[in-house]
Amino acid sequence: MSKLHVDSVIKTFGTNQVLTDIFISCETGEIVGLLGKNGTGKSTLLKIILGALNADRKFVKVNDKVISSIYENRNLINYLPQNNFLPNHLTVKKIISTFCDNQNAEKVSKHHLIVDLLDKKSNQLSGGEKRIIEILLIIYSEAKFILIDEPFNGVAPIYREEIKALIKEESKHKGFIITDHDYRNIIDLSTRLVLLRDGGTKLIKNPKELEYWGYIPEKV
Amino acid sequence: MRIVKGIWLFYRKLILSAVIISAVIASLVPGESFFLKRVGLAYMFITPLLHYFIYEVRNRNEYFFYYNLGLSRLVLWISTLAISIVIGLIFLIV
After folding, report:
1. Cα separation of A19 and A59, whole Å?
2. Own/partner long-range contacts of B55-58 (Cβ < 8 Å, ≥24 apart)
C-alpha cells in the first residue's frame, strides 16, 4: 500500500491567504472527495500537490519519497485540470501512446467511447469528447495517485456512471483525490470526504455535516 | 524515454511556423548570399517567441499534459532554447 502525504501547505495571493497550513492524505484504495465552495482553493491545492503551482510552503511525500519537483512526481502523481489540456496538434492515438504505457494505451484505445476518435486531432473534438479522453488517460495513467479536478464538467449524465465505475475499479490499486461541484456524485464515489473551508481542511464523517458547515443548503 | 518524447512533441508544434517565419524574415533582409545563415539566425530568435505566443498566451493549459509526463515549464523553456540554438547553429554552419 502506498500513501500520499501532504501537509504544511500555505498559499497566499496578494494579501489573501487562500490555504492555511493544509493537511490532506490519501492511500491507494482510497477515493478522497475534496469539497469546498468556489474560491476556497481546491484547484490551487491540487496544482500545488502536482508541483505546477508554487506554494509559500508545502511538504509532499509519497511513501518515504519527498516530492519537491514535477520531475520527481512522474509516475507517482498525475493531475486532471478543470480545463482541456490535450495538445491540439496531435492525434488522439498519439496522445494515448505518449501518456500511457502499452498495456493501458490498449485499454484506452479500445474503449467504446474512444475507438472512433483515435485518428482525430484534439482540435476536431467537442469539449465533452476531449473531457472523456482526458479522464480515461488520467485514470489509466501509471501514476499511483490521481488528482481530478471537476471530472464531470461537460460530460453527459449517461457517461458519468461509467466514469465513476472506472474510478472505483482503478482505485483498487491507486489513490484518488477528486473534486467537483456535483457533490452528490462525489459523495457517492468517495470513501472519505474532506471539506476545504477557511483555508483549512475538515474531515467530514457524515454528509449531514456539510449542511452544518454551510456547503450545501439545509434539507437537500 | 517518455520525457524525450514529450519534449519532442512539445517542440514539434513550433518547428514549421518557426522555419516559415524565419525564411520570410531572411528573404526580407537585403543581400543575395548567406540566405541559410540568416534563416538560422532568425530561427534562434523566432522559436522562443513562438513558444511564448503558442504556449504561454494561446494554449496555456496544454502545459498540464507535459507536467503529467514529468516535464516542468522551466525544463520546456530550456529545451526550446537549447534545441533552437542547435538547429540555428546547424543553419549557420551549413
Report:
1. 13
2. B55/B10
Backbone torsions φ then ψ of A53, nearest 5 degrees: -130, 135
Tell me if A140 sits within 8 A of A108, measured CB to CB. yes
Going A55 to B3 to A144 to A152, the CA torsion angle's sign is: positive
Q: At what angle do helices A102-109 and A127-139 cross, to 10 degrees?
A: 150
Mutate to test the interface with A, among B5, B9, B12, B67 (most CBs of A within 10 A): B67
Distance CA A61, CA A83 (A): 26
What's the domain count of chain B? 1
Range of the structural domain that residue B67 is part of = 2-93
Q: What angle do CA A156, A161, A165 make, to 5 degrees?
A: 140
Cross-chain Cβ contact B59/A88 below 8 Å = yes
> Where do the H-state alpha helices sit in chain B?
2-28, 35-51, 63-67, 73-93
What's the predicted TM-score (pTM) here?
0.92
Give me the tens of pLDDT residue by residue for chain A, a chain 220 residues long: 899 999 999 999 999 999 998 999 999 999 999 999 898 999 999 999 999 999 999 999 999 999 988 998 888 999 999 999 999 999 999 999 999 999 999 999 999 999 999 999 999 999 999 999 999 999 999 999 999 999 988 888 889 999 999 999 999 999 999 999 888 889 999 999 999 998 899 999 888 888 888 888 876 5
B62 with A90: Cβ contact below 8 A: no
Q: Note whether A59 and A23 are within 8 A (CB).
A: no
